[in-house]
Amino acid sequence: MGITLGQGIGAEEALTGESRSAQHPGSPAAPLTAPLTAPRSFRLRVPATSANLGPGYDCMGLALDLHDIIDVVATPRRDGDRPQVTVSVEGEGAATLPRDATHLVVSLIERIMARHGVGMPDLEVRAHNHIPHSRGLGSSAAAVASAVIIADELLPDGLTDEEKLQIGSRVEGHPDNYVPALRGGVALSWQEGDRFHTVPLIPHEELRTVLAVPDVEQSTAEARGVLPEVVLHADAAANSARTGLLVHALTSAPELLLAATCDRLHQEQRRAAFAPSMALVDSLREAGHAAVISGAGPSVLVLAAGDSAARAAWSHIADHAARTDDMWTPAILPISRAGATVEEYPR
Ligand SMILES: Nc1ncnc2c1ncn2[C@@H]1O[C@H](COP(=O)(O)OP(=O)(O)O)[C@@H](O)[C@H]1O
Ligand SMILES: N[C@@H](CCOP(=O)(O)O)C(=O)O
Description:
four-stranded antiparallel sheet; single chain; 11 helices; binds adenosine-5'-diphosphate; seven-stranded mixed sheet; alpha+beta; 2 domains; disordered N terminus; binds the ligand N[C@@H](CCOP(=O)(O)O)C(=O)O; Alpha-Beta Plaits; Ribosomal Protein S5, domain 2
């Protein structure tokens, strides 16, 4: 997971890049403002994402039509001192995720609100999780985007778009999953100093996405840990060319996707961490499909040009699964144009 909260730099700095006292002179001694004067009730949908897309390591990603759903009920605090927080989780993570204020989404909401000088209301969070965890589909980025959007809803003045971009990118540590989880579509993002920037890419109308999800997990932190500190100049140069080509292929020339998805920075270096996934990528690419490792793996993503190419990739994955002992679930999943969206419930 790319979470930096509470690691290395302090949690407050991870959220804003500045100390609280710099933004709120007089704090941290200043008490938090009481939250909410009226109850709020809403549903949040946040998409899965596939990062890297081959050579776009830590900078490119797209949102997929597979969503976590969170129902939120926020009410003014009954007990003045402590917020009452209840968490329920169905689906992915139901057996493992905490049900208290240490839950990633809840703890991050609390930190963002505190950073803005506002205390937590009483909060009921009901998570219906559909994004598989630790499969390279951005579940942690989706959780971070959920927290940012819920905090935006609960803060009296909300968050600006710029704050939403900075906070979540900083917490995740890299923006490639987080930005499409927040904003949808396909995104190219970069960092200058401690500021994150992003531009949307408008995908070509023929672009299709096919996903193959295995029944094994791979922690993102571990997959990042195996990457070398230094890359050869020749690899960096080759990767630059393919990343530039990838922007062109995604937006204007899907027939170039196979050449454009050739990576020199991370997939081969991580092969031992997800050998069956690399075998599937190799097999798909030999057959002409633009297959890549999704995020830090172990899922595999195919970028296809048109419906029949997408169906052929789907069949190739199903045949590969039948030939090997590996369990793969293939799916043709559209790109989600919407990112994290909120629907209000009347009370
Ligand atoms: N919806 C969620 N709510 C709370 N925590 C989550 C949620 N989704 C993911 N996480 C946390 O993130 C971890 C997975 O993160 P990571 O290893 O980065 O893989 P992924 O590629 O799925 O983001 C989970 O084990 C869990 O601790
Ligand atoms: N660029 C990151 C992407 C991690 O994505 P995830 O979905 O596996 O969390 C990396 O390759 O480490």
